[in-house]
Amino acid sequence: MLKAVLVVTLPFVAEISTFSNTRSNLNTSTIECGSDVYFLRAASSVNILQKNTFRSMENLYRLDITDCYMREVRPGFIRNPKSLIVINFSRNRLSTIRAGVFVKSLTSLLLNNNDLESIEENAFSNIFIEYLELSTNNISTIENWFRNVTILRLHLNNNQITSLRKDTFREIRGLEDIYLDNNRIQYIEVNTFPNMKELHLARNYLYNIDFLGRTVLETLDIGFNRISCFRSFVILTKIKRLLIYPNPWNCNCLLGFWKLAWRYGIGYGDSQLFQQKSDTNLICLVAEHIDEQDKKLHEENFMRILYN
Ligand SMILES: *[C@@H]1O[C@H](CO)[C@@H](O)[C@H](O)[C@H]1NC(C)=O
Ligand SMILES: *[C@@H]1O[C@H](CO)[C@@H](O)[C@H](O)[C@H]1NC(C)=O
Ligand SMILES: *[C@@H]1O[C@H](CO)[C@@H](O)[C@H](O)[C@H]1NC(C)=O
Ligand SMILES: *[C@@H]1O[C@H](CO)[C@@H](O)[C@H](O)[C@H]1NC(C)=O
């Protein structure tokens, strides 16, 4: 059966009567509705989402409060969000996520481009989140945020993360893709990651990939790190596609890898973050026949590519 969706833009005053008990400066401009509200977007600044800001909205499936200078979301900000599946709180000023704020399973929870530094213990628990977006924040450590949660795609890129422990992701079920590019990761404990499809670790400070241990992956991006050689070649045979450039490769080691890749059908190439392809034909750094001066030149050239 076809169901007509009427799109109306209501003035602020009318919205107040639509949403019982909204506070002060909450403003909304786009409402798609039949008799109820399905999609709600805030159009001006929203400082704090108080308890019970939204209620009696059984059909609301999407809530967008973005670019609104929002600093805080309190537990219970929405009451009985039966149909809610997308929350977009990106580009605000959130500095913390309290436990008990997100209690409903969602297809997308977007918290990127905020000022997140701390996330309370069990902030993501007893729910299913298909896509959790936490990129471009100020997160330096991942504490016990997760408990009894299913997350398929997790974005933590563009943060300040320095290390990952074996138990960091252990409580998450179903993980397929993790994005950790552009952090400050130097150390990852062995077997931190479950078997997954994609692991993105470009632009960090990694010297090796020993942390994989028994992990099986489809794609691993380790471009823009400090890797000069694979210490264990056995690990590589569990990966289908390796994005290894640029890194300060030792040429002999790389030759060994190429042979192995050929033998086991491992695909390899440039990091997904590598955009200046024309700028370089420098694949490896240290070869036996290179004299000291050439080596220095190579290194400088390479560091320019790596850290520009
Ligand atoms: C709410 O948004 C409308 C349209 O964008 C604007 O005219 C109005 O001034 C806003 N109200 C408040 C209280 O910010
Ligand atoms: C979330 O909101 C931001 C800012 O309005 C927008 O750029 C982004 O596309 C939205 N994300 C999704 C998945 O809707
Ligand atoms: C785990 O989370 C699911 C929702 O995803 C919930 O139904 C279940 O009761 C939770 N289990 C425990 C032990 O809390
Ligand atoms: C990020 O956190 C550091 C301390 O860990 C702090 O010095 C810095 O000001 C924060 N940056 C932003 C943008 O909040």
From TrEMBL:
SUPFAM superfamilies associated with the record: L domain-like
Taxonomically, the superkingdom here is: Eukaryota
| InterPro entries xrefs | Dev_Immune_Receptor, Leu-rich_rpt, Leu-rich_rpt_typical-subtyp, LRR_dom_sf
**Keyword set, alphabetical order:** Leucine-rich repeat, Repeat, Signal
Secretion signal, residue range per the UniProt entry? 1-18
Among SMART domains, the record links this protein to:
LRR_TYP
Q: Which Pfam families match?
A: LRR_8
| Name of the featured protein | Leucine rich repeat
Gene source species:
Popillia japonica
